[in-house]
Each structure stands twice: as C-alpha cells, then as structure tokens.
Amino acid sequence: MNFHHKLGLAALILALQACATQEKPDPHAGHTAAAPQAAKQEMGGMGGMGGMGQKMHDMSGMAMASLSPAAAGGATGLVMFHAKGEDLMVHVKASGFAPGSMHGFHVHDKGNCASPDFSSAGGHFNPGAHPHGPQDAARHAGDMPNLQADAQGKVDQKFVLKGAKLQGETGLVGRAVIVHADADDFKTQPTGNSGARMACGVIAAH
Questions:
Q1: pTM
Q2: Is 180 domain-assigned?
Q3: Rounded distance, CA 40 to CA 153, Å?
Q4: 78 found inside a domain
Q5: Quick one: pLDDT at residue 42?
Q6: 95 occurs within a structural domain
Q7: Disulfide: which of 58, 153, 182, 201 matches 65 by Cβ 3.0-4.6 Å?
C-alpha cells in the first residue's frame, strides 16, 4: 500500500470515529430532559397534599370527649362537638344512667379528669363572669341543657350551644365536660344544685 492509500485510509477511520462519537447518546441527557417533568409531577403530588391539607382544615371544626365514670360509678359515652356558623352542634351518646333520670351537664374550666370525684376539672367554664343559668338567659359559657336518659338508661341527645366556639381563649377544646348525678335547676348559684360529678371527659379537637 503506497503512502497516498495509507493517508486516505487513516482519514476514513478518523471520520468514522467522529460519526460514532456524535451518534453515541449522552448518558446524562435523559436525566436533564426528565428533570422538569419530574418536578412537575412532584408539584402535582404537592397539590394532592394541599387537598389533604384542606380536608384537615375542614375537620378542624370538630371536637370530641370520651366520658369516663367516677370512682363511685357513673356513665360512659361520647360527646361530639361540630362548629356550625357562630354556634356549636353538640351530640351526646352515653349509657349507664338510671332509667328516665335527668342530669346536669356542663363544660368545666380545666381539662383534668384525674381525681376520683373529678374535682380536678374545676368549676364551670365562665370566661364572661356571668351567673349560672339556662340557654335563653345570661349564663356560663359552659352551661348546657340537662341530659335526659331513656327507659334503658341511655342518652342520645342533640342540641345547639349558642355563641360557643372550639378554639381560642374562650374555646371549649382542652376543657372538660362533666355529667352530674342530679338535674340542673338553672337557678342555684353557681352550679345549679346538680349534685356529684358522675362522668368526665376532656374535649379534644379532631
């Protein structure tokens, strides 16, 4: 092979190598192109989380207390609160009462049911320093209607607590609900003469 043939062959080999280099895929190219798409998908996922966050926010207007009986005996059950405009819807489902009995029912200041007689819950929740009374008069923020047991000693009762709220310094969350042994007369100060505390539960947001 003469010098000119060798030179031409070398040029051909170099040209083929250059083409191979240009056609070889860049191993990083796919990642670079995929990055914006991955980011977009991630943002879409965050949008889903935002929807969950909204749902959790909607649930912030609910609270619940689980009633436990006093050491001397009492009722058990659930008290559910749901914000409705400027008021609260309250639903009580409980059992363990004497058939047909009526019981005073209040929110007390401290969310503490630790003592055997529930005295640890303090007095009625009364941030406005009002007298004890019925729903249609000046009253404690914690004053609620009496609970009426049915013939089986069960309570399934709903009512609206006007002007009450769950959160904040004057909110009910973190305080205690107390069921008393006797009916509230809504006159005797400051407790309504409703007797011993027979059940207690701390109100917690849900």
A1: 0.68
A2: yes
A3: 59
A4: yes
A5: 36
A6: yes
A7: 201
